[in-house]
Design a protein that fits this description.
By secondary structure, the chain is mainly α. It has six helices and two strands, in the order ααααββαα. It has a two-stranded antiparallel sheet with strand order 1-2. It is globular and about 50 Å long.
């Protein structure tokens, strides 16, 4: 995607962000600590992991190194479901601003990723960030349903939305 990769990434990321926001807005307000797997993240922790992924990946790219010991600014995890979506919006806007400052040439730059292996910045953003977010959003959507919430359709209607569509015909 020479000459257009940054813009293509930003458009795709923002489109996926709309679905992520719909899932975050659908989380049951009283289920922050819901944890179907005792060894896994709670619903609130998993929701905030989406913000952490965006922040750490884009901050690492901006700083020229990835280091979990260096916490990106404004990344305090809310402890209430109702505050997660707004907190994620802030973290997402910060991350978007960092990526908007990159050039297409920056996307072709190689840098050591978390485990030290060199990776192209564009690949970090497309695969390590965007695909990682989509993966965890799917987990969060399932957790939302398991916690008694109604997960919105993401890449197509959910069962309630499909039933409503069928009822219209």
């Amino acid at each position: 995607m020479p000459g257009h990769e940054r813009d293509s990434f930003l458009k795709t990321w923002e489109r996926e962000n709309l679905s992520t926001m719909r899932v975050l807005d659908a989380l049951p307000a009283d289920q922050y600590d819901f944890r179907p797997d005792p060894g896994g993240r709670s619903l609130g922790e998993l929701a905030w992991h989406l913000a952490e992924a965006e922040a750490y990946m884009t901050y690492g790219i901006e700083q020229g190194k990835f280091d979990f010991a260096i916490k990106p600014p404004n990344l305090e995890r809310p402890r209430d479901v109702r505050a997660l979506a707004a907190g994620f919006r802030r973290a997402h806007e910060d991350a978007m601003a960092r990526v908007r400052r990159l050039t297409d040439e920056d996307f072709d730059r190689t840098m050591p990723f978390f485990m030290g292996d060199p990776m192209r910045v564009g690949d970090i953003l497309w695969y390590a960030l965007l695909h990682h977010l989509i993966h965890h959003r799917g987990q969060l959507a399932l957790m939302c349903r398991l916690a008694g919430g109604r997960t919105p359709g993401i890449h197509g209607p959910n069962r309630e939305e499909m039933a409503a569509l069928k009822a219209q015909t």
